[in-house]
Amino acid sequence: MDTSPELKALAELIRSARCCTALTGAGVSTLSGIRDFRGKNGLYTEFDADKIFDIEYFRRDPSYYYNAARTLFYTLDEIQPSIVHIGLARMEQSGLLEGIITQNIDLLHQKAGSRRVVEIHGSPSLHYCLNCMDGCSPEDFDADDAVRGNPAVMGFSEAAAIVRAGDMPRCGICGSVLKPGITFFGEALPAKALKNAEGLARKSDLMLVLGTSLTVYPAAFLPEYTLRDGGDIVLVNNMVTPMDSRAILRFDDLETVFSFLTSEAG
Asked: Where does Zn(2+) bind (predicted)?
């Protein structure tokens, strides 16, 4: 196992941090076998990026999204969290991690046991009717209460079973196809999540930036808040990022880093 001075320095930074947080991207979940979007074997090599997550195209033909996403998002019960998901959950449970800001929409942080997860690109945990819930965001109502009391919304497990069977989840009021609560192109990012993410980033004296190339905004700007408020960032990614020169430590391999951190935690 790699026990380089840089990894030991990282462990010490985490132990001594007043408020350590993590920003996670697709690279964290590719370790679980989930395809990324823009990589050489990513989802966008098979499906049109201008259609699959475009809100206007979804309104015209929701089947394109559901056909593309069926094996990507709706088989999550078969996918296990990666060593990074598990490591971050253990850090939170040990009091070493304040929370996670994630660009991912796969619910694997929650599956690993993390409790404070800010999903800045929305979440598939709820599917809702664009007609009957017009003007509402999934953030506007409690997920459990909504699923129990509103036929215009559906929880992830029920929606996933329908999608895996080759159909699409539909509204119990008007019959329209339900949309997942993830943010499509043409939609605003969830305002409450963005506010929470900015607050967490500003509070952090150490942010672990994991598996993201920091090219998608506004998520890519979150480390800047940490730096501007006097904190440090650590980058772990297998490609260069615009923030590389500003990181206190920089690593290429997530699995190596979290194997070490896991062993350090005993």
From this structure: 129, 136, 171, 174
